[in-house]
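Please check the following for our workbook:

***
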Amino acid sequence: MILQNANSMEKFLRFLFIILFLIAGIFVIFHPAKTETNILNAVFSNSQEDKIVVDLSGRYSSIINVMVEGEDAEKVGEISEKISQKINQNFFTKKDINVQNFLEKYKKYQNNLLSVKNINLLEKEQYEEVASESLEALYNPLGFSLVPLEEDPFMLFTDYVKSLSTNSNGDFSLINYNGKYYTITTLEINHDNALSPSVANKEIKNLIKIQKKLSSKDVKIYLTGSSVHSYYASSRSMFEINLICLFSVLFLLALFKYYFTNIKLVIPAIITLGFGMLCGYIIASIFFKSIHVLTFVFSTTLIGICIDYTLHYFIEKDINKIFKSLTVSMFTTVSAFAVLMLSGVELLKQISVFTMTGLFSVYCIVNLFYPLLKFDVDSKNINFEMPQKMRKILIFIVAILAFCGLFFVKFNDDIRAMYVPSKNLLKAEKLFKEVTGSGEKTTFAVVKGNDLQTLLENEEKLTHNLNDSEFQAMSKYIPSKKQQKENQILRKNLYKNSLKNYATFLSQNQIEKLLNSKISEDYLSVDENDILSEFLLDKNTSFVVLYDIKNPEIVKKNGADYIDVQKNISDRIQKCRNNCLVMLLPILAVLLIILSCIYKFKTAVKILTPSLLASTFSVGILSLCGVEINLFHILAIFLIIGFGLDYSVFRASGLNGSKDAVLLSCLTTIFSFLLLSFTGFKLISSLGIILTIGLAISYLTSLVFEYKNEEKFS
């Protein structure tokens, strides 16, 4: 009767599991979560301030510079034009605030327009200096005037138009540098396309094909920009990871063939892992609108713990024997990752939900469905143990190196340190900076206003106090109505004080006409799509691009927010790293409490010690080798704890087969991470290195302890 009730309960639970999975799966099909690839969105919150930093970073990370180099100026121009014709106009936008497009409109309002430099001089009534600079420009053999001198004798309008151009606005004509000619076309990936990595990579791949096709011994084409780096890094990483997956599967097949003599057992193992990842994705999609790609990297890696469950079942062939070990392993790991929900970091929350769901799903599959499998399983008996003397030596070495290494720990939160580009890309970036002189540091001032005119006035209040610092701003191209009126007055005052002495080349009638001109109430305005979209974050917020600003405090004194994107990113990554470190202590405390409730306290400490030793040793040994620790090294500690705890819990079960299962699981996992450490992408390879070290130490230190009759419950 009891057996019949147990069977009925198992059938009900299987049915319930399938129904819940189907309901959740159908929901996600109709409400799919987007995949987020921007690493900043993994560590930045949804606050308005953080959104601004991510937005500003994204605007510049979606820019690609196409630089053509050659000794023949005509040939360089020809190739540059061919590139412009061949690119996908629906995907790329030529990022070029081309003053020529607005020149005729500007000429109509020439009296309203003055450069910031001349505004400052005229406000201080330094008329002689303005006149002196105007004469110098007037008699310069290479000088020119955009309007007739009788309309603008001081060439103030020409000076204004020249002030709009900087080496940072994407408008480069033919450049002569070190005896060679260069043209530079700045492309921007359209916003909607930038959100789709697969589409972006496809078009960048086509751009690279154009680069290779049009390059020759006479003309070289260089591509620079974050998107180009991302394409090469992701393409190489995908190839390497696919290769690693292939080798890992082959290794798993060989291991199953050797130990079980039946490689068919790999099929349920792989299906179970895949199903666990699918369940993790489905539940994470319900909780989050978008799932970061790093969530997949960390969570699917951790779900590799679940191969232990499969191996234990096939070795013991009886779910009842391993039920307690499976339950303790699942419960402790899930509890540890549940603590991450309190971290306040979006990435850690996603990893928490994804991992907990994946682990629990695999646990349910092994317990509910594996007993239905009918496989002939015949396994060998390895029963690897460590000699007593070796145990003491190992613990001593690990403890000493872990302790000493922690004194040499240095953290590096610079996101650039996590990626090392190829020599060709480095060469292209270096050449671009040399040719354009754009090596200056770029920061931003964020300005707010209740309406467009107030916003422009607030920008002008700031930019007029920047002294000699170069900048780009919306108000440069669209002065406020208030400023345009003041510009006319400043110009009139200049004429009254200096025109007769200065403009000896004008007739008396022309001079009188300028002096008697009236203040116009007609003001320049520019269509929204022309300029506003370049500088507006929203209808009430704009940003000013600052180049090598000497005194950032000026920004704050003028009511704007100063943003150094690079520093903000580093600060936020540091905060995320600190949050992770702070979470480690409560996680270990929770694990110790849970294990103490299941086992004797002494046994709980034994189970937890290998994970603690492995985590500190892996960080310590890297520090002794001069490796700077970053956020992703710290995240790897969570994986090491998860794997290490799994090894110790199963060994504590006392089952002979568990020892072999733990060894086989450790070998497959370490093999995969060891291959990962040879990848070209530094972020991934650093994860592979620390995980290989950590998991090896987790397993070896778990061999040190013996667990005999110390459980509270049999």
Notes: Residues 248 and 672 are 6 Å apart (CA to CA).
